[in-house]
């Protein structure tokens, strides 16, 4: 009598094989990596939700990637799996890593896998739900983010003008105690609307009552005045719909997913979701990822590297419970930066110095960072170019990043004199837009020229942090914007300035912790006030004329 093998038998057979395989995995997914016992425990251990936590360079991203590949190998049946991050350059880098992993390339076709940015994922989902049509979104680099922000500012500016003009009909209709102050300019209101959308306070009663945590303290906004802000918010959304062909702000994607929740059936959800650099995602974006996960949500990140604004939400409130035992895994061995680079980065005083309490181990020793005072901006680039030549003469396989802080170049780097100067001397210079197609570590003499924002999550043998002066760290214009305001309470103003400096120091920390070997910090003019946090024994100095 012949035996009939049922589908269930087959599934159970393959599951057993997968389990046996699991115990024999030697985790050789990538070259040159021997996982630590802590990393292996994270990869082996199954949880519905888990945070892989640790300071810069401790291997959070690589551990997450191993866990992701391990899931692909272990699951015998086809699963829907998402690997996601906010930043386009980081996803481009992850895809490059995955393409180099033989075991991933061999096994990926067995599942439905998306390795993508938040906005691409959201865009595809909303198209499937027929909520949006339209053309494909462009890549979400810092340049794109700034362009979106500038558009919003311009459009909101038009509306605000009406609501503040005593001759206008709109102004007349506003009750006296709901009229806006002069401090409520277009920028303030654009930021308020962005904050409302990021945090999902888009229903009137909720917005009127909510504690405005993470918002400017020096510019007062009464509850009554929030009625006017809400009115502007409504007019702005209508404007986007009617005059700009249903244009969506970057913050609208998550809101749209939440609004269409009931149409998101199980087949559109993911069995496994892996989130890299979770601290970059806005609260509503995290909430949607919780919604879209069927089986397991693994997030990785370092809260100290947050660049986005504060918010009233904790992970718990967004549906991620990481307080249970085994769900918050901390890594503390730094595989990237030398002890010397980390010592200098750690001396930066932000978030009340909480990051300084970490237990730390290092695998690399190196030179102390070099801080170079240059006679002027041209000389600064001359120093950088000469140094890069020296680096490549010694070893053309080493990689270099030049990290600038020029806002105008972020939105239009094509016209950057610095980029032109680099291209004049070197053949392979990428920027954040063509990083994925151009920057190639299998080729020699690779340079990335990028903003301090787009460098998140990446690493290079040598990094040049240029413009480390009092114009750019912190960005002077941000503080000047605040000081323009005559009516501010002094202590509140100080709090706002401290907040800007705190965010700027975190950005500097991220930029400083990208170097595997050497960190050079160059400036012309006056050195950044953030250098006051450094101890002189932790760096070398040079003058370049
Ligand atoms: N066990 C290991 N053995 C060797 N190298 C490792 C190991 N773990 C991580 N690395 C390497 O250390 C570097 C930093 O790792 P990774 O980028 O994952 O850190 P991270 O914690 O995500 O950093 P950041 O938050 O600063 O982006 C990478 O080059 C990675 O390949």
UniProtKB/TrEMBL annotation:
The keyword NADP belongs to this UniProt entry's keyword annotation: no
SUPFAM superfamilies per the UniProt record, alphabetical: P-loop containing nucleoside triphosphate hydrolases
Keyword field contains Hydrolase: yes
GO biological process: recombinational repair
EC number(s) per entry: 5.6.2.4
Keywords: ATP-binding, Helicase, Hydrolase, Isomerase, Nucleotide-binding
UniProt-listed Pfam families: UvrD-helicase, UvrD_C
Annotated catalysed reactions: Couples ATP hydrolysis with the unwinding of duplex DNA by translocating in the 3'-5' direction; ATP + H2O = ADP + phosphate + H(+)
GO MF term set: 3'-5' DNA helicase activity; ATP binding; ATP hydrolysis activity; DNA binding
Alphabetized InterPro entries for the sequence: DNA_helicase_UvrD-like_C (IPR014017), DNA_helicase_UvrD/REP (IPR000212), P-loop_NTPase (IPR027417), UvrD-like_ATP-bd (IPR014016)
Cellular compartments per GO CC: cytosol
Domain named UvrD-like helicase ATP-binding: residues: 33-338
Binding site for ATP: 54-61
UniProt-recorded name of the protein: DNA 3'-5' helicase
Protein's organism: Romboutsia hominis
């Amino acid at each position: 009598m012949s035996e009939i093998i049922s589908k269930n038998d087959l599934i159970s057979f393959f599951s057993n094989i997968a389990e046996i395989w699991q115990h024999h995995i030697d985790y050789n997914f990538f070259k040159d990596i021997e996982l630590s016992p802590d990393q292996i425990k994270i990869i082996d251990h199954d949880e519905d939700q888990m945070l892989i936590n640790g300071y810069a360079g401790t291997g959070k991203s690589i551990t997450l990637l191993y866990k992701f590949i391990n899931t692909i190998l272990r699951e015998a049946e086809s699963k829907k799996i998402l690997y996601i991050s906010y930043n386009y350059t980081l996803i481009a880098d992850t895809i490059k890593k995955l393409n180099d992993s033989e075991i991933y390339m061999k096994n990926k076709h067995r599942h439905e896998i998306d390795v993508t940015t938040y906005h691409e994922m959201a865009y595809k989902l909303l198209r499937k739900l027929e909520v949006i049509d339209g053309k494909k979104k462009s890549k979400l680099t810092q340049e794109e983010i700034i362009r979106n922000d500038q558009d919003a500012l311009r459009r909101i500016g038009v509306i605000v003008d009406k609501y503040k003009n005593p001759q206008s009909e709109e102004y007349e209709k506003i009750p006296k105690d709901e009229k806006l102050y002069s401090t409520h300019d277009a920028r303030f209101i654009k930021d308020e609307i962005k904050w409302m959308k990021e945090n999902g306070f888009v229903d009137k009663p909720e917005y009127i009552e909510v504690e405005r945590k993470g918002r400017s303290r020096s510019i007062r906004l009464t509850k009554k005045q929030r009625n006017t802000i809400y009115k502007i918010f409504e007019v702005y959304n209508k404007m986007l719909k009617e005059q700009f062909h249903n244009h969506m702000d970057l913050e609208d994607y998550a809101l749209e997913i939440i609004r269409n929740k009931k149409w998101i059936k199980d087949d559109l959800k993911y069995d496994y979701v892996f989130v890299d650099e979770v601290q970059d995602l806005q609260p509503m974006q995290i909430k949607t990822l919780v919604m879209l996960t069927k089986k397991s949500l693994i997030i990785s990140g370092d809260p100290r590297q947050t660049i986005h604004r504060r918010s009233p939400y904790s992970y718990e409130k967004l549906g991620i419970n990481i307080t249970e035992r085994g769900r918050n895994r901390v890594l503390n061995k730094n595989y990237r930066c030398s002890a010397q680079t980390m010592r200098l980065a750690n001396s930066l005083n932000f978030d009340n110095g909480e990051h300084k309490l970490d237990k730390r181990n290092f695998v690399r020793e190196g030179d102390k960072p070099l801080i170079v005072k240059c006679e002027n901006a041209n000389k600064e680039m001359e120093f950088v170019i000469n140094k890069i030549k020296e680096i490549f003469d010694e070893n053309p396989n080493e990689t270099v990043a030049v990290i600038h802080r020029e806002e105008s170049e972020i939105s239009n780097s094509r016209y950057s004199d610095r980029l032109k100067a680099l291209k004049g001397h070197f053949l392979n210079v990428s920027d954040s837009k063509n990083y994925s197609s151009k920057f190639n570590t299998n080729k020699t003499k690779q340079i990335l020229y990028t903003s301090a924002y787009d460098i998140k999550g990446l690493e290079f043998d040598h990094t040049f942090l240029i413009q480390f002066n009092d114009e750019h760290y912190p960005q002077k214009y941000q503080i000047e914007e605040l000081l323009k305001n005559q009516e501010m309470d002094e202590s509140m103003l100080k709090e706002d300035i401290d907040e800007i400096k705190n965010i700027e120091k975190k950005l500097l920390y991220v930029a400083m912790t990208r170097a595997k070997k050497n960190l050079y910090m160059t400036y012309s003019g006056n050195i950044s006030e953030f250098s006051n946090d450094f101890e002189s024994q932790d760096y070398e100095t040079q003058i370049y004329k």
